[in-house]
Structures are given as structure tokens and as C-alpha cells.
């Protein structure tokens, strides 16, 4: 398989409580084909890319690379959606833990990206991975702008 799908399978084995079963290979392939040369995956997970806990057909794969966050969704018939969040567009993140599942809202300059129906146990790890990546990359942007 691809490196994205392998990371998603590790996530699913570690945190089986979320709703993340819909076409994971296809969603991962969307991200694989948009990786730039020299870009590597450090973490990947799956969730529903929507703001409604009851909509379980909007599964997406979210991958953190060494340069950006990629969100891939393969459409059922043809085409796909790909979102890219670079550190310069990232504002902040909100984590919500509900009764059964949790959600992560990533606020960017242009939009809010909401990932729902995540296993409650996985929220800390997802938040840590995204926060650590963004803090390190924002430092690099600040150093480059000071020069």
C-alpha cells in the first residue's frame, strides 16, 4: 500500500472507536498523488470532514507531512477534494470531546476545517501532532521573515 494508508491503518488499530471506515484506500490515494518531492508523512488519521455528527458518509483522510496538512476525499463516482493547510495560513485549533466522539476544528485564514466523529481517546494525540508540527513550522516562518 501507500505510506498514507499505512499510517491510517496504524491510527485505526490504535483508536478503533471513531467512524472511519468509508473508502480509506481511495482517500489515501488522493493524498499520495499530491505529495511533493521530498514531502514525507509524519502522521495520518481519518474522520468525517463536516460539522454534523450524524453525517457519516463524509469520511476524509488527514495527513500531516513535513511541510503541510493535507485532507483528501475521493468522490464516489469521479473526482476528489483536496485541502492543503500550510503553516502560514494556520490560526488555531479547537478540540471538543463529546459523550461518544470528539471533533477537531482547525481555523485557517480562509476557512474553518471541522473533523468530526473521532475516537475520544485519539483527541490528545491528534491535537499534539498538529500543534507540535505547526509550532515548529511557524518558528521557521518567523525566522525567515526576520531576515
Can you offer a commentary on this structure?
- It is built from 3 helices and 7 strands, in the order H-H-E-E-E-E-E-E-E-H.
- The mean pLDDT is 90.
- A hairpin with a 3-residue loop joins strand 6 (101-108) and strand 7 (112-119).
- Helix 1 crosses helix 2.
- The chain has 147 residues and is of the alpha+beta class.
- The chain has a 7-stranded antiparallel beta sheet with strand order 4-3-2-1-7-6-5, sandwiched between helices.
- The longest helix has 24 residues, at 123-146.
- Strand numbers in spatial order across the main sheet: 4-3-2-1-7-6-5
Number of strands: 7
Uncertain parts: none
Number of helices: 3
Please estimate the helix content: 25-40%
What is the mean predicted local confidence, pLDDT?
Answer: 90
Report strand %.
35-45%
Q: What's the main sheet like?
A: 7 strands, antiparallel
Given the C-alpha coordinates, what overall shape results? globular
The secondary-structure element order is: HHEEEEEEEH
Distance between the termini: 42 Å
> Which structural category do the helix and sheet elements fall into?
alpha+beta
Radius of gyration: 15 Å
Question: What keyword list fits this structure?
Answer:
3 helices, alpha+beta, 7-stranded antiparallel sheet
Please summarize what this structure is.
The chain is α+β, with helices and mostly antiparallel strands.
Amino acid at each position: 500500500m501507500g505510506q498514507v494508508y499505512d499510517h491510517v491503518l496504524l491510527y485505526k488499530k490504535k483508536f478503533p472507536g471513531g467512524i472511519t471506515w468509508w473508502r480509506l484506500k481511495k482517500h489515501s490515494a488522493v493524498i499520495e498523488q499530491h505529495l511533493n518531492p521530498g514531502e514525507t508523512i509524519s502522521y495520518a488519521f481519518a474522520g468525517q470532514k463536516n460539522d454534523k455528527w450524524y453525517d457519516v458518509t463524509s469520511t476524509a483522510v488527514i495527513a500531516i507531512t513535513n511541510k503541510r496538512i493535507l485532507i483528501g476525499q475521493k468522490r464516489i463516482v469521479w473526482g476528489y477534494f483536496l485541502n492543503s493547510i500550510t503553516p502560514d495560513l494556520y490560526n488555531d485549533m479547537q478540540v471538543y470531546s463529546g459523550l461518544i466522539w470528539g471533533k477537531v476544528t482547525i481555523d485557517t485564514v480562509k476557512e474553518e476545517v471541522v473533523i468530526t466523529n473521532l475516537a475520544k481517546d485519539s483527541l490528545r494525540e491528534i491535537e499534539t501532532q498538529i500543534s507540535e508540527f505547526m509550532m515548529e513550522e511557524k518558528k521557521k516562518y518567523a525566522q525567515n521573515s526576520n531576515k
